[in-house]
Amino acid sequence: MSIKIFGHQNPDTDTITSAIVLAELESKLGRDAKAYRLGEVNKETAYALKYFNVDAPERLDSVTEEDTVMLVDHNEFQQSAPGIEAATILAVIDHHRVANFETNAPLYFRAEPVGCTATVLYKIFNENNVEVTRELAGLMLSAIISDTLLLKSPTTTDQDEKTLYQLAEIADINLELYGLEMLKAGASTSDKTAEELINGDAKTFEMGERSVRIAQVNVVDVDELFERKDELVEVITKEIDANKYDLFTLVVTNILESNSKVLALGEHHGVIEKAFDVALEDNAAILKGVVSRKKQVVPNIEKAFASLYE
Amino acid sequence: MSIKIFGHQNPDTDTITSAIVLAELESKLGRDAKAYRLGEVNKETAYALKYFNVDAPERLDSVTEEDTVMLVDHNEFQQSAPGIEAATILAVIDHHRVANFETNAPLYFRAEPVGCTATVLYKIFNENNVEVTRELAGLMLSAIISDTLLLKSPTTTDQDEKTLYQLAEIADINLELYGLEMLKAGASTSDKTAEELINGDAKTFEMGERSVRIAQVNVVDVDELFERKDELVEVITKEIDANKYDLFTLVVTNILESNSKVLALGEHHGVIEKAFDVALEDNAAILKGVVSRKKQVVPNIEKAFASLYE
What we know:
Two copies of one chain form a homodimer. By secondary structure, chain A is an alpha/beta fold.
């Protein structure tokens, strides 16, 4: 039986491509290995696979004690295939913290504090003197673009950057052009309903006596989303009525420019002006440098409420 | 504060030398790092350090949340420094299973299924193009000799063997001569009392109605130990009288030749002849190919008792 290689649940581009790339490496080193995926291929990954003419891996639902496996882009068991505790784990290639992981026997465990699994895999290709083909380079550079948002994420390391440029040369590709198209394919909101957009990643916060709902959508094209503003306002207004929110804030974050545009509705929407020192125009405003709900949006609104009403 | 680098508790040669070697590598890569040890340096390790003129690391009793550390030759927290859960772990270089280990942040975690940590460290030197000096080569080859018993242990891999020969060339040393002397220094029994020898690693087994004590001592020179046979017989006889053992078996295992010589005393000492198909001479016999108490000595004696008396 082949060695099964897979990344984490809710797969992203790094997880899918790293499974394919490692299976290819193992095959070249003489091992019978096959890549799998634990969930649906997202649009960004689909774009990359299609561009480099590579098939998506087969779906895998669980593993058993009969299975010999290698994990990429994760190590924590709760993020892995159901049954992983019983399987024989031969190798892990990762770039996350190590936790909730255990084996009975020694294994090859290679995690490095870099921005992307592909950056580690590229090293391993070189260490084993295995040629990186154009397709493999394309898959690995897609993973790095995805995980580092074209080198703009604060998780990016010098190694990721250096590796990305080397891979771009092998793949003979214009990084900016390809990368932007790939990220756009993934961040496209055109196929989502307004309800999906405002509920996909939304949390409610109790601030004093006010109930504040804050939804966030990551995009590469803010305007594309705001063209549907009337539709969004309609569903948000329904949400406010149904749940008695005092404020509903939709934060549309441009992942490439590290800015957000906010749409604020509800009785207390005006608090946004105080919170971010901006003027709302038709209930909307640009929030320069704001990308984090947890570290920026929530505390700023909380402070503004406190100073205005208490 | 320097990065603290250390191996496991009850340190052996691989653990001590790997801490020193990694601290040297980190220093050469521009990091402020220092090697430590969690316990006493054993005689084998002391021999290696003296031979290559390297000081033993300072002792470390515990770490705190203030500490930034790197672990070598282990990863399980219960084998590490007290307080390890709170420390910031930057790196792990190891060759054991992964278990009971957890970090909050990504780290450099490099474990490989080879016979010795030094084999992994030598790779990392090469990957970073850092020169391996004669002293460092000497420390690393000492670790490989120790962990693989001069390549004779079943845990030895091709990589350990290849690395050992490369290091021997750098250190300009006769592997067989040096290795045997180093292993002898560690397996020397001359500094131990007869009581220490028969109690150091001894277990009692109930076999039917008989009480059987089986002690094991690992050596590189069986004769050295058997020169003290009269002294050993005296203390074993006292043990038998005090504890009413039906059989006391001292298994002296030559770790280089994978043989043992047994000394059998007590009313039922004759069962050893049946158990191993040997003739006892002055209560002693060579047991060819016998090295494991758990897998060879215990079951054979158990079977012999069963067929003779039940």
